[in-house]
Design goal:
Length: about 120
C-alpha cells in the first residue's frame, strides 16, 4: 500500500506525533514508558497505535522502533500489578488489518524510521 498524502493520512500522522510526544513527555504516561523501557531496552522510539481506556485498566497497542508491535495492559487501580504484555513482529501484526489500520501502521513505521535515522 502506498501513501497519497490525503487528509486522512495527515490526520493520522498528526495523531501519531501527538501520542509519541505524550508518551515521552507527559507525566501521565510515565508508567507506560517505564514498562516499555524495562522490557525493550533497545527501544529508541515508539508510537501508540491504539489506546483503549477502561475503568480499571488501559489497553495499548504500541509500535516499538519500526519492527515490533506490543500489546500492553496496565492496571489503573493497583499500580503494583505487573502489566500484561505480548509482542509480535510487524509482519505478523499487519496480517488482516483493516485498510485504515494498515495506513496507520505504515505512517507509524515511516515516523519511527525517521526517528531512528536521527539517532544514528
Amino acid at each position: 500500500m502506498k501513501l497519497i498524502n490525503s487528509q486522512t493520512e495527515q490526520d493520522i500522522r498528526e495523531q501519531l506525533i501527538k501520542s509519541h510526544k505524550s508518551l515521552f513527555e507527559d507525566e501521565e504516561e510515565r508508567k507506560l514508558l517505564t514498562v516499555i523501557r524495562k522490557n525493550f531496552s533497545n527501544m529508541l522510539t515508539a508510537y501508540i497505535l491504539h489506546w483503549i481506556p477502561e475503568q480499571g485498566e488501559d489497553f495499548y497497542k504500541i509500535l516499538i522502533n519500526d519492527s515490533i508491535v506490543v500489546d500492553i495492559e496496565l492496571d489503573k487501580v493497583n499500580q503494583d500489578t505487573m502489566p500484561i504484555m505480548s509482542s509480535m513482529p510487524v509482519s505478523e501484526y499487519k496480517r488482516g488489518l483493516s485498510r485504515i489500520n494498515q495506513i496507520k501502521l505504515i505512517i507509524a513505521i515511516d515516523l519511527a524510521q525517521k526517528d531512528l535515522k536521527k539517532t544514528n
